[in-house]
Design a protein that fits this description.
single chain; mainly alpha; Endonuclease Iii, domain 2; binds iron/sulfur cluster
Length: 146
């Protein structure tokens, strides 16, 4: 446990040490990280986003992946409301599932994250430099409103 704490303390994750130890123990017992969504969700401390991101990024499987940050881009682009947290918003996950490409899933997810971090910012999005502006509901509505 001390070795785990020494690694994660600088990251501010001390309270997750027990969970990380349980997760590592389970993965060793399984002989590796499972690739199915169901099996990933069965691991200690792994929720829908972590399981989905692992499938998409580590295993390069076509897998809808959305968190609170990338939800901002999807919701603005498709004109979805933001009443629910991303993790509980079934409509959002359904739209993201349909938007996710069959190949290049890793790059797709990184692209949406980059767009959220640099262009589609909280508060005032920088639609004037966004490559998605011509088809984005948010941007189109903003122009229509004058
Ligand atoms: S056009 Fe504007 S609101 Fe739409 S995705 Fe780009 S930055 Fe976000």
């Amino acid at each position: 446990m001390d070795s785990i704490l020494s690694v994660i303390r600088p990251l501010g994750l001390v309270r997750r040490a027990e969970t990380l130890k349980a997760l590592a123990t389970e993965i060793v017992a399984l002989g590796g990280v499972p690739a199915s969504l169901e099996d990933l969700l069965g691991l200690p401390g792994v929720g829908l986003y972590a399981a989905s991101a692992t499938r998409a990024v580590a295993f390069e499987r076509r897998q809808a992946t959305v968190d609170g940050v990338t939800a901002r881009v999807y919701r603005r682009y498709f004109g979805l409301d933001d009443a629910l947290p991303a993790s509980a918003d079934r409509d959002l996950w359904s739209v993201v599932d349909r938007a996710t490409p069959r190949t290049g899933v890793r790059e797709w997810n990184w692209s949406v994250l980059d767009l959220a971090a640099t262009v589609c910012l909280p508060g005032r999005p920088r639609c004037e430099i966004c490559p998605l502006a011509s088809d984005c509901r948010w941007s189109v509505d903003m122009h229509a409103a004058g």
